[in-house]
């Protein structure tokens, strides 16, 4: 998700820019940087209005990136900047991954998964892991110790089952002697469960072949609003800054 921001088409400020002569490019750069930074801040704020953070707000906000223009890196006549969500040279970086997650909630998206799990009783067509009731709260994610990978769920993709590892009736122990506590987990075609008492279990994760994320963030709509309301004002301000500097 990206937007190339160029302010040279705003007729309301063109006369003032033309009067600056060769200094017009400096005003345009100040203009586009001020506007771009404002749009970036507005998008970052918008995320928090429609997204529940669980200790990761700053990381999500860093996924909204403004690449402004400078004399050193932008070329003599370049006056456009770029606003991106999660776009980095390293597609595996945390910023890129969080940006991809934000993009899924910016635009409605339906996804399917063919992931399967190898268990002691055969192959289970799992798909996505969805946390069961009580695993996630308004302030916290599921405990890391209960993530599928932590309790021993070994995933294989597209039916290609390489190796002998499997997941089922997994036992985890904590403590020693009288304080030793052993927990048992098992998988079915429905999901992953924890045995809490003999004959009773607690659902931890449900399997789902498909998930749909609704469009709910409105980041780009907020950026457009900033453009509509403030672009011309930032243009006049940039012209005045250049005039004051040359006086």
Total helices: the number is: 6
Major sheet strand order: 7-12-11-10-9
Let me know the number of strands.
13
Determine the fraction of residues in helical runs and give it as a percent range.
25-40%
Q: Main β-sheet, in a few words?
A: 5 strands, antiparallel
Along the chain, the helix and strand elements come as EHHHEEHEEEEHEEEEEEH
What is the percentage of strand-forming residues? 25-35%
Radius of gyration: 26 Å
The span between the termini is 41 Å
So what's the overall shape? Answer: elongated
Give average pLDDT, whole number: 78
Tally of discrete structural domains: 2
Quaternary structure type: single chain
- Low-confidence regions: 158-166
| Class from secondary-structure proportions | alpha+beta
